[in-house]
Specification:
It is built from seven helices and five strands; from the N terminus they run H-E-H-E-H-E-H-H-E-H-E-H. The protein is of the alpha/beta class. Helix 2 packs across helix 7. The protein is globular.
């Protein structure tokens, strides 16, 4: 009947208005450049201190955001893991206040020996700060690392970007995009090889 048709029309309009945005550093940018449907607002080399809330102001309410920050803070600043995580937590809080659905992308520990221990500590602090605030935390350590030993492979970024967009399009499929996709602190471990 009429009400069912109006409901379907509403769902179609809502789906069309829901957009996908990659925000933060090169890991978010990797998702945007490796998978379809994403608008790239990320910047290579971005640190949480560089982040401007003006970026969030460009994103319509109800949109999906793949946010990745912290890796460049870990390698280019002497800030404590807690300071870095606190800034990222504030960004997530702002995104949630703007009614954005945030998926946090946890940077890979990588294989640069001098950075592994610090990266692991920063990752854990970020996880502890954002895990309960976001739709899901995805750990790039679970994917394939690229030849630079710092970034994920383009295949890993594409798989993750497509997974997020598909989970948003079909929110009731298992734990896709839900709390079940969040990694536990025990799974956020440093890589030694």
């Amino acid at each position: 009947g009429y009400s069912y048709m109006r409901y379907k029309e509403f769902c179609i309009q809502e789906a069309q208005q829901s957009k996908l945005y990659a925000v933060g550093d090169s890991h978010a940018g990797g998702i945007a450049s490796s998978s379809s449907g994403w608008t790239n607002l990320a910047s290579n080399g971005a640190k949480s201190t560089d982040f401007s809330t003006a970026t969030l102001d460009k994103i319509p309410q109800g949109s999906v955001v793949a946010l990745s920050l912290g890796h460049n803070d870990s390698t280019a600043t002497k800030d404590t893991p807690e300071q870095i995580a606190g800034r990222i937590g504030a960004i997530v809080d702002r995104a949630k206040a703007d009614k954005l659905k945030v998926f946090f992308i946890l940077f890979p520990t990588g294989f640069v020996k001098e950075a592994i221990e610090r990266n692991a500590a920063v990752r854990m602090a970020i996880y502890n700060q954002v895990a309960s605030k976001v739709a899901a935390v995805y750990d790039l350590n679970r994917g394939t690392i690229g030849p630079d030993k710092i970034h994920a492979s383009s295949t890993s970024y594409a798989t993750l970007g497509n997974f997020i967009s598909n989970s948003v399009a079909t929110p009731n499929v298992g734990s896709l995009g839900g709390k079940g996709a969040t990694v536990s602190p025990a799974q956020v471990s440093d890589r030694k090889s």
